[in-house]
Amino acid sequence: MSRRETEASSRLTRLLADSVRGNRPTAAETLSLLPHAPLAALQPVAEALALAGHGRAISFSRKVFIPLTQLCRDVCHYCTFAKAPRRLPAPYLALDEVLDLAHAGAGQSCKEALFTLGDKPELRHAAARDALARLGYARTVEYLEAAARAVLRETTLLPHLNAGVLDEDDLRRLRPVAASMGLMLESASDRLCARGGPHYGSPDKRPAVRLATLRNAGRLAIPVTSGILIGIGETRRERLETLLALRTSTTSSGTCRT
């Protein structure tokens, strides 16, 4: 082992020992030492931190999924949720369908109504625009607000909204009808948005706009669940950069849970 390799190994050993003691590595230390660190060294530390933070208990939220729409303007190349209009019986669930799902979930002791939907489908699909017009709305976010309000009014469930990228005005609109929201950062890598990448053609997957939504939600004191995706073509360094971006969002807002 060369002198440089010996020094790097010693620095990694100190970093991991400090991490077990509760001292977070800096961004510079993380990106210098962890991209090529052996998994055999990282796994015991990850286990120790998980047990120290959460013990052996596994928690979960009893929730019913309400897919308000499976239309989306993005074309993520790994997605199995979004569908073309011709593959759906209707572009959006009707409000009575939303409430039927919510009541069924409440009957199974669910506590949360998890609304899932695509990003701004009306900007891409005429079928979405026409369906919204028939329902009396111009945008998906307006219909989502009405659906979540109906669930709050008619059931005991708490709405959790996975509404995609939102500006501050729409976050303010949805805040009164949402116990919490969700937005996966997925990746902080702009490289994955380039031609040939999994996020090419998906404007709502640009890291900057997703981070802006997380920051705005933090300023509005909206609890948000976030996280990263594994296995979409990212490198370990890009995973680390994404985790660091989430850590910054958590530190600055205090409302992002991963």
CATH topology of the largest domain: TIM Barrel
What is the CATH architecture term of the largest domain?
Alpha-Beta Barrel
Q: Shape, please? A: globular
Number of strands: 6
Largest sheet, spatial ordering of strands: 1-2-3-4-5-6
Share in helix: 40-55%
Q: What is the total domain count?
A: 2
Rg (C-alpha, Å): 21 Å
The computed structural class is alpha/beta
Runs with pLDDT <50, length 5+?
none
Distance between the termini: 38 Å
Give the count of helical stretches. Answer: 9
The CATH class of the largest domain:
Alpha Beta
Can you give the mean pLDDT?
94
The CATH superfamily of the largest domain bears the name Aldolase class I
* SSE ordering: HHHEHEHHEHEHEHE
Strand proportion, as a percent range, falls in 5-15%
Largest sheet, in brief, is: 6 strands, parallel
Q: Which helices and strands occur, and which strands form pairs?
A:
Blueprint: H1 3-20, H2 27-33, H3 39-54, E1 63-67, H4 95-107, E2 112-116, H5 126-135, H6 140-154, E3 158-162, H7 168-174, E4 180-182, H8 207-219, E5 224-225, H9 236-253, E6 256-257
Parallel strand pairs: 1-2, 2-3, 3-4, 4-5, 5-6
